[in-house]
Design brief:
Length: 334
């Protein structure tokens, strides 16, 4: 599905938006938000780590990298039944998207991948939007995931190209972009964003948004994560980012990628309801629900339910605006 927003954005234009007085920036983002999305509607997604820890990569933020000494225990791939049970619970709790994460550098064509394909098939048949984040993918692997019913693939750029090698040395920015291209070719929705609070400059944040907005098509989802500093990782002592920095990122993403779902992702556990409300005002319209992200805590389900009630937010339905035809296209024909 093309977004129909093919404007090429310069860094200067993005910088002009990002650096506006913050209340003006929020007002403009809220205006764009209302033009393209139902007010007060927030997509509720659930994450599950289906393969935890032991990852060979050196991402400086990540508690699952084998080389850092964190409290994460290495586990083998979960069983298909366990995952489908978790998806069913997530659906009962109001989630419409279920995202499965694996601490892999890349997908390998082995029995574990076959099991992930079964998980994708099962979750899709439950009527949820199914998403995966499994590391790098070839075109053929993306095609297999699509045929199994995958709706979206998460693969973050994480930071700017310039800052990338200060955070990760075991792969390149181009590797990331290649996977995003493979996902697009397979007609899977692209979910790609990044993390703030890793010691990057404002220019780096603008640089990451510049790369995302100038992809051949805008990502359908843009997660904005605040670093969750984890003991044992190189970034364990990074100071908390201010909510105004989250607001600037979210609002800029909203203005330049008006149709995208902008996800207020990791970091909510340290934000007050008031701070989260500012992020929704700035154009965030998606969250992860459930008391755990992949390995770190997230607000409790009932806390989020209270927040939705207080702020008058309502959960967005699955496959919204896509019609039944596309919905059923996701189900593989046997
Ligand atoms: N291994 C795959 C990969 O890296 O693409 C998929 C899983 S990985 C954990 C998915 C994303 O989680 C990362 O790209 C990063 O943006 C986010 N992430 C990991 N650790 C984080 C942390 N401590 N704080 C915020 N976001 C984090
Ligand atoms: C994304 O952008 N954030 C999520 C999801 N995509 C996979 C992951 C956040 C992980 C936070 C650290 C953890 O819980 O391990
Ligand atoms: Fe591995 Fe992904 Fe963590 Fe990097 S972010 S160490 S690739 S699990």
């Amino acid at each position: 599905m093309t977004q129909g927003f093919n404007k090429h954005w310069t860094r200067e234009e993005i910088s002009g938006i990002y650096n506006m007085p913050v209340l003006e920036l929020m007002y403009r983002a809220a205006t764009v938000h209302r033009e393209h999305h139902a007010t007060g509607e927030v997509q509720v997604c659930t994450l599950l780590s289906v393969k935890t820890g032991g990852c060979p990569e050196d991402c400086a933020y990540c508690p699952q990298a084998a080389r850092y000494h964190t409290n994460v225990k290495v586990e083998k791939l979960l069983e298909v039944d366990e995952v489908l049970q978790a998806a069913s619970n997530a659906k009962i709790n109001g989630s419409t998207r279920f995202c499965m994460g694996a601490a892999w550098r890349e997908v390998r064509d082995n029995r574990d991948f076959d099991k992930v394909l079964q998980m994708v098939d099962g979750v899709n048949k439950m009527g949820m939007e199914v998403c995966c984040t499994l590391g790098m993918l070839t075109e053929e692997q993306a095609e297999k995931l699509k045929n199994a019913g995958l709706y979206a693939y998460n693969h973050n750029l994480d930071t700017s190209e310039e800052h990338y090698d200060k955070i990760i040395s075991t792969r390149t920015y181009d590797d990331r972009l290649d996977t995003l291209e493979n996902v697009r070719k397979a007609k899977i929705h692209v979910c790609s964003g990044g993390i703030i609070g890793m010691g990057e400059s404002h220019e780096d944040r603008i640089g990451m948004l510049h790369t995302l907005v100038n992809l051949p098509e805008h990502p359908e989802s843009v997660p904005v994560n605040a670093l969750v500093p984890v003991e044992g990782t190189p970034l364990e002592d990074q100071p908390r980012v201010s909510v105004w920095e989250m607001v600037r990122m979210i609002a800029t993403a909203r203005i330049i990628m008006p149709k995208a779902m902008v996800r207020l992702s990791a970091g909510r556990v340290r934000m007050s309801v008031e701070e989260q409300a500012l992020c929704f005002m700035a154009g965030a319209n998606s969250i992860f629900a459930g008391d755990k992200l992949l390995t770190t805590p997230n607000p409790e389900v009932n806390e989020d339910q209270n927040m939705f009630e207080l702020l008058g937010l309502k959960p967005r339905e699955a496959f919204k605006g896509e019609g039944e035809a596309l919905r059923f296209e996701q189900i593989p024909q046997h």
